Amino acid sequence: QVQLVESGGGLVQPGGSLRLSCAASGFTFSSSWMYWVRQAPRKGLEWVSTIRTGADTTYYADSVKGRFTISRDNAKNTLYLQMNSLKSEDTAVYYCADIGMNYWGKGTLVTVSS
User: Fold this and answer.
1) Following DSSP, what letter does each residue of 2-49 receive, concatenated?
2) pLDDT tens digits for 26-39?
């Protein structure tokens, strides 16, 4: 069955970095546009970033542009999100997803706090 499993979240101080990973299985990962979406406490879902199948084109929300980098390794069926210069407002549960097929992981919590 389809599985998306995020990892790499945790507690980090403002200005710090984290790298999220998302291991995919049960579908043709290399053929899917992949997404990172987050949900801050008491807020709705917020799109963060998208990467096309060949990783040649990426898109970012203005709130993370220049600080976050999405990437993928199709040989390993893995999606990544490198997050630098983290801010308190980046605190959220981060989900990876194939939105087109409505496949979602269970999320990983990122807390940015001193």
Assistant:
1) -EEEEE--EEE-TT--EEEEEEEESS-GGGS-EEEEEE-TTS-EEEEE
2) 999 999 999 999 99
